[in-house]
Design a protein that fits this description.
There is one protein chain. The chain is an alpha/beta fold. The protein folds into 2 domains: 157 residues, Rossmann fold, CATH 3.40.50; 146 residues, Glycogen Phosphorylase B (Rossmann fold, 3-Layer(aba) Sandwich). The protein has 12 helices and 12 strands. The strands form 2 sheets. A 6-stranded parallel β-sheet has the order 3-2-1-4-5-6, sandwiched between helices. The chain has a 6-stranded parallel β-sheet with strand order 9-8-7-10-11-12, sandwiched between helices. Helix 5 links the parallel strand 4 and strand 5. Helix 8 packs across helix 9 and helix 8 packs across helix 12. The longest helix is centred in the N-terminal third of the chain and has 12 residues. The protein is globular and about 55 Å long. The model has no long low-confidence stretch (mean pLDDT 94).
């Protein structure tokens, strides 16, 4: 029997891609527990993507990056007080498996569930959990996110829970336009497909290409690509909500292994994710969401950030795959 009115806390602090790839669980939880009260604890910089989500009761920003930068004891004290003063939860789930997320979860009133020592990204995090899940680290990160939460809530897991998802975030009803989003940046330079090859790729594609950027360096690369391609234009700087809406209107997204590219998958929009130092484990492949991996081998337990093999992916291969999806 489905238990009504469960109070559930999800702790998934950062980064953007991790949050996007976890948010699918919201619709899964509400399918089994329609009256569940779900609070999400998230790094404050990424909170806007979850604000006003119809399946979340409250989004609680956690200022960890600001604390790290400013070393502000008063802010730390305020954060801990905010966490400890929450009403008791029936379930607290750390879906991140890091020491920082485990500590945040441990301040909340209630028992915490997370990955066991061998499954967590940082094994020490498991010390803070009352119960744990043993989930292979090498499977898709999206499967891991869903499994740790469904196991905590006694929801039977199957891949169909992911495969039958509706768009994860609210967006105006979209009549898809014939345009392609190119996500040109990433958190590591070795995850970035070279701007020279992006420019060539733009000219190989049949629809207008819109360059999505998020930092000053990425904007400089976007300007270079636009100047060297007849089929590229630069998008304006967008908020996270505007980014979701934009991606929902595109026919196809092609990009590096980073949050904005993963938004396309979340919104059921066709996508191609390019991999160099990481691999297809970072996505959940579907008939319309695929990855292209460089020739290098990846040790998922010891990622080589100096692996620039993404440079070896042929733009003509990407264009061929793109035309197949279009």
């Amino acid at each position: 029997m489905k238990s009504p009115n469960l109070r559930i806390a999800i702790v998934r602090l950062s980064a953007l891609g991790d949050i996007v790839n976890t948010a699918v669980v919201l619709q899964i939880i509400h399918c089994y527990y329609p009256d569940a009260h779900i609070d999400w604890f998230v790094e404050e910089a990424f909170a806007p993507i979850l604000h006003n989500h119809p399946l979340i009761h409250e989004v609680i920003p956690v200022p960890l990056k600001r604390l790290k930068k400013n070393k502000n004891f008063a802010l730390l004290k305020e954060m801990i007080h905010t966490l400890k003063s929450r009403e008791r939860y029936d379930h607290i789930i750390d879906a991140q498996g890091l020491l920082k997320s485990a500590i945040v979860a441990s301040f909340l009133p209630g028992n915490v569930h997370g990955f066991d020592r061998k499954s967590a990204r940082e094994g020490i995090a498991s010390w803070f959990y009352s119960t744990t899940s043993s989930i292979p680290y090498e499977i898709s990160v999206i499967q891991r996110n869903v499994m740790v939460i469904t196991e905590a809530l006694n929801i039977p897991y199957s891949d169909s829970l992911i495969e039958k998802k509706t768009p994860v975030f609210d967006s105006p009803s979209a009549s898809y336009e014939n345009k392609i989003a190119l996500v040109i940046g990433a958190s590591w330079q070795s995850k970035c497909y070279p701007k020279e090859q992006f420019a060539l790729l733009c000219d190989l594609l049949p629809y207008p290409c819109h360059l999505v950027w998020g930092s000053a360096r990425e904007y400089e690369d976007a300007v270079w690509i636009q100047e060297h391609s007849k089929n590229a234009s630069i998008t304006p700087k967008m908020s996270l909500k505007e980014l979701v809406d934009f991606m929902a209107y595109c026919t196809l997204t092609i990009g590096n292994d980073t949050g904005p590219t993963h938004i396309a998958w979340a919104m059921n929009v066709p996508s191609i994710t390019l991999f160099g130092p990481t691999n297809e484990r970072m996505i959940y492949p579907t008939s319309i969401n695929i990855g292209i991996k460089s020739p290098s081998e990846v040790d998922i337990f010891h990622i080589n950030r100096n692996d620039f093999s993404i440079n070896q992916i042929d733009p003509h291969l990407i264009a061929t795959k793109a035309k197949g999806l279009l």
